[in-house]
Amino acid sequence: RLIEGLESALRGQISGKMRVCSGVVLDLDRLVLVWENQEVTLSKREASFTALLVRHGGHVVSYDLIEELLWSNRPMSQDALKSFVRDLRKKLPADIIENISQVGYRILCEKK
Fold first, then answer.
1. In 3D, which of 20, 76, 75, 17 has the Cα closest to residue 50?
2. Is residue 78 classed as helix, strand or coil in its secondary structure?
3. Beta-carbon neighbour count of residue 29 at 10 Å?
4. CA distance 56 to 77
5. Fewer CB within 10 Å: N-end or C-end of the chain?
6. For residue 61, which of 24, 6, 1 has the smallest C-alpha distance?
């Protein structure tokens, strides 16, 4: 059921606002991240990736699941994912995406 819910969210069937961390909200309808009255525009994939991490509630999301849900139409290299996350981190208010080496990524709000 979790995979079905994530897939439907990534296809845009779930919308609305998600609390990422204290004072940080992801608006899936508008594809923006809002914090301290500032908005950062995200691509659909960036918003989907962030929503995927948030929905896992601080648990690690594996590289395989990220590839399956976000790069389903083509293979994802580790370099492509690292580059994608590096660019996304530049848009975020704090370093809230943590890499767990050889496993995946998670939201880590304590750093905020």
1. 20
2. helix
3. 10
4. 22
5. N
6. 6
Q: Which residues of 63-72 are buried (b: 16+ CB within 10 A; e: fewer)?
A: bebbbebbee
* Structural tokens at position 6: 């994530």
Work out the pLDDT band at 111, boundaries 50, 70, 90: very low
Q: How would residue 9 be classed by pLDDT, with cut points 50, 70 and 90?
A: low
Do the beta carbons of residue 86 and residue 49 sit within 8 Å?
Answer: no
Write the pLDDT tens digit of every residue in 18-77: 888 888 889 988 999 988 888 999 999 999 999 999 989 889 999 989 988 888 778 888
